[in-house]
Each structure stands twice: as C-alpha cells, then as structure tokens.
C-alpha cells in the first residue's frame, strides 16, 4: 500500500510531497489490532454494566 500526500502553500509558494510505503501484511495486522481493541473495550463495557 502506498500513501501519497501532496500539498501546496500558496502564501510561501512551496510544494510539499510525502510518500509512505507500507506492506499489505502490516496494514492487515494493524487493522486487526485496532478492531480487536475496540471489540475488547465494548465487551468489557457490557460486562461491567
């Protein structure tokens, strides 16, 4: 997966470019970790209530 950010500062007449390359495996594992954390929090909240 590739993330590209481009911006322009008109006032300073400058262009900014940023590229980030992330492996598909890392994207999937990060997504699973975030979803797992959210599900765990929801489960704990329901358990305590």
Sequence of secondary-structure elements:
EEH
Instruction: State the helicity in percent bands.
Output: 40-55%
First-residue to last-residue Cα separation: 40 Å
What percentage of the residues does DSSP assign to strands (E)? 25-35%
Global geometry: elongated
Give the beta-strand count: 2
Q: For the largest beta sheet, what order do the strands appear in spatially?
A: 1-2
| Radius of gyration of CA atoms, rounded to a whole number | 19 Å
Describe the sheet with the most strands. 2 strands, antiparallel
Q: Which residues form runs of ≥5 with pLDDT under 50?
A: none
Number of helices: 1
Mean pLDDT: 93
How is this structure best described in words?
With 49 residues, this protein is of the alpha+beta class. The chain has a domain of 26 residues. 51% of the residues lie in helices and 33% in strands. The chain has a two-stranded antiparallel sheet. The protein is elongated, with a radius of gyration of 19 Å. The chain starts with a strand and ends with a helix. Keywords: Membrane, Transmembrane, Transmembrane helix.
Write the layout of secondary structure elements.
Layout: E1 2-9, E2 14-21, H1 24-48
Antiparallel strand pairs: 1-2
Keywords: Membrane, Transmembrane, Transmembrane helix
Transmembrane segments: 26-44
